[in-house]
Amino acid sequence: MDRILIEALSVDTVIGVYDWERSIQQSLSLDLVLATDIRSAAATDDLRLTLDYAAICQRIQQFADAHQFALVETFAERLAECLRTDFPITWLRLTVRKPGAVANAVSVGLEITRGNLPEATQEISA
Ligand SMILES: Nc1nc2c(c(=O)[nH]1)N=C([C@H](O)[C@@H](O)CO)CN2
């Protein structure tokens, strides 16, 4: 299965468990791997037949503007649901980093995978 990549997308949002975090915007850095078959788009040179990474990035910032979660876990889970609802994504890996959140770490965060890959590609998904 082919994969569309989005690397180090910076999005601003209200996120955090502490009181001081509830009244400021902070930046999250997102990496996404989106499984799709690009062959029909490549054969026809037609954007409508693939995942439009620009539209996906725009949707992610809209999502970040519309929510104020405490945990990066909630942000990641709900964003994955949102993208899989709005775009024909059968499988995705989403990494969410919160730069500067912990002293002496460049960033902290998490990685989730959601959805199913076709059987032939499952063993190389890690
Ligand atoms: N597993 C998590 N641990 C922590 C989170 C989180 O979202 N998931 N958040 C915080 C605070 O908001 C922190 O980022 C502020 O520096 C602490 N731990």
From TrEMBL:
Keyword Transport: no
Gene Ontology CC terms: cytoplasm
EC top class named in words: lyase
Pathway recorded for this protein: Cofactor biosynthesis; tetrahydrofolate biosynthesis; 2-amino-4-hydroxy-6-hydroxymethyl-7,8-dihydropteridine diphosphate from 7,8-dihydroneopterin triphosphate: step 3/4
A Pfam family that the UniProt record links to this protein: FolB
BP-aspect Gene Ontology terms: folic acid biosynthetic process; tetrahydrofolate biosynthetic process
UniProt xrefs under InterPro entries: Dihydroneopterin_aldolase, FolB_dom, GTP-CH-I_C/QueF
E.C. number: 4.1.2.25
Gene Ontology molecular functions: dihydroneopterin aldolase activity; isomerase activity
Dihydroneopterin aldolase/epimerase domain ranges (all copies): 4-114
Keyword annotations: Folate biosynthesis, Isomerase, Lyase
Source domain of life: Bacteria
Family, per entry: Belongs to the DHNA family.
The protein's name: 7,8-dihydroneopterin aldolase
